[in-house]
């Protein structure tokens, strides 16, 4: 029987997982190295902002019921029946290797504190073979116990996304990769408490490959849509009309193109999957797709630059307002945000860049403004990188009065090109010739 659960990492994965187990009556402790975040959680305040249905309310509820607490102290692992590791695992594109600093640190601390019989599960997305070559050795060396004998070890990759954190955990199927059948059975028993979707037992390596493949697959599909968007721009037609008509055909589901791909998973998981076969083979299609998607923020910035050029102006010294800094609409998640690529490209051309986002509080090196009208006042161009609902409701007449030069560059198909042109704006959009 499971009673005490420890969640290592209280971010976009750890917080909703902790809240859901706590709401089911388990005694849950969340571990985070940041005291500020720990203090917020213990006060019942959700550190994740944006439109996140039911999460703030449920967090407040389980904190009041004393079913969830947060700490920086790994000694709570001593009494844990299950320990779920939910830390970030970025990828260093320059060194072409995963950045496992947080994972290694968490594993070492868990190994030093866990007790015999504990079930340790890695929910973080990791490269294939990582469970066998990194996770297991660290836990065994620090705990002086043997995996599969003295403790159980598994990999159950998360499938969350901002805006649907609780929904995805509860309703999507999960892959439960265990070191042996006993581990798989225990994982099924544990996750059945919070998951209504199907639970599929398998081995750790298969679970690792499934997770990285599902995101690499989506990244490739988005790259295809982006390439079609670039073709449509050159041909002078609208990619969104093309997409709609393509998807009328059976077995077709062309994805949405846009200003770039962000988030924790898609920009790195094809790289993690490739890293898993380093020295054995070199995947080509998914790497080409990754590189194409990486270029979309630069392309979006170039649309801004070209809008000025085509109207006899230079972007240098012009005030450009980047609208949306989060990578996903109605979220505060800035991980791998494509907005940075847009900002850096425009600044390199001498533009004066200001940034607005209704959800993001702060980001290192970037001033995020909350007052939209003050941000765009006197702007020479607006470039929309994130499709927040606030932007979809904007009044074009009011926008034009506030701006110095009426240029709109639309990276997310927020506006109708013809309507914007009718209002006297110069308009360019990704995929719109």
From TrEMBL:
Please verify whether the record's keywords include Membrane.
no
State the InterPro entries in the record: 6-PGluconate_DH-like_C_sf, NAD(P)-bd_dom_sf, UDP-Glc/GDP-Man, UDP-Glc/GDP-Man_DH_C, UDP-Glc/GDP-Man_DH_C_sf, UDP-Glc/GDP-Man_DH_dimer, UDP-Glc/GDP-Man_DH_N, UDP_ManNAc/GlcNAc_DH
- Biological process per Gene Ontology, one example term: polysaccharide biosynthetic process
Provide the E.C. number(s) assigned to this enzyme: 1.1.1.336
The UniProt record lists the UDP-glucose/GDP-mannose dehydrogenase C-terminal domain at: 321-417
Q: What family does the entry list? A: Belongs to the UDP-glucose/GDP-mannose dehydrogenase family.
The record, for NCBIfam families, names: NDP-sugDHase (TIGR03026)
User: What is the name of this protein?
Assistant: UDP-N-acetyl-D-mannosamine dehydrogenase
Which gene does this sequence derive from? wecC
């Amino acid at each position: 029987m499971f009673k005490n659960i420890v969640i290592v990492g209280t971010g976009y994965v750890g917080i909703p997982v902790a809240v859901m187990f706590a709401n089911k009556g388990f005694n849950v402790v969340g571990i985070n190295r940041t005291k500020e975040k720990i203090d917020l959680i213990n006060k019942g305040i959700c550190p994740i902002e944006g439109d996140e249905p039911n999460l703030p309310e449920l967090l407040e509820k389980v904190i009041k019921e004393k079913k969830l607490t947060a700490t920086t102290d790994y000694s709570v692992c001593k009494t844990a029946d299950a320990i779920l590791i939910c830390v970030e695992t970025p990828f260093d594109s320059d060194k072409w290797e995963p950045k496992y600093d947080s994972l290694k640190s968490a594993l070492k601390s868990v190994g030093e504190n866990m007790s015999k019989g504990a079930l340790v599960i890695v929910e973080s997305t990791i490269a294939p073979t990582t469970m066998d070559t990194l996770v297991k050795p660290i836990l065994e060396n620090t705990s002086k116990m043997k995996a599969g004998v003295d403790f159980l070890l598994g990999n159950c990759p998360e499938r969350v996304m901002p805006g649907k954190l609780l929904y995805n955990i509860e309703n999507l199927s999960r892959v439960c990769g265990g070191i042996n059948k006993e581990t798989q059975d225990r994982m099924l028993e544990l996750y059945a408490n919070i998951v209504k979707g199907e639970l599929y037992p398998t081995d750790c390596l298969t679970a690792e490959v499934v997770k990285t493949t599902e995101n690499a697959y989506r990244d490739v599909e988005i790259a295809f849509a982006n390439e079609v968007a670039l073709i449509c721009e050159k041909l002078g037609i609208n990619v969104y009309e093309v997409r709609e008509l393509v998807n009328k055909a059976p077995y077709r589901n062309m994805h949405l193109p846009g200003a770039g791909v962000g988030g924790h998973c898609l920009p790195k998981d094809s790289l993690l999957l490739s890293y898993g076969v380093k020295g054995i083979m070199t995947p080509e299609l998914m790497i080409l797709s990754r590189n194409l998607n990486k270029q979309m923020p630069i392309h979006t910035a170039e649309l801004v630059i070209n809008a000025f050029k085509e109207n006899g102006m230079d972007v240098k010294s012009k005030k450009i307002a980047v609208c949306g800094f989060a990578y996903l609409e109605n979220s505060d998640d800035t991980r791998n945000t494509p907005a940075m690529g847009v900002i850096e490209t425009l600044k390199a051309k001498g533009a004066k860049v200001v940034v607005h986002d209704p959800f993001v509080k702060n980001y290192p090196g970037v001033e995020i403004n909350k007052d939209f009208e003050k941000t765009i006042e006197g702007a020479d161009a607006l470039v929309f990188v994130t499709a927040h609902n606030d932007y979809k409701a904007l009044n074009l007449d009011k926008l034009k009065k506030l701006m110095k030069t009426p240029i709109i560059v639309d990276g997310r198909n927020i506006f109708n090109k013809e309507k914007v042109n009718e209002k006297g704006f110069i308009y360019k959009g990704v995929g719109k010739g």
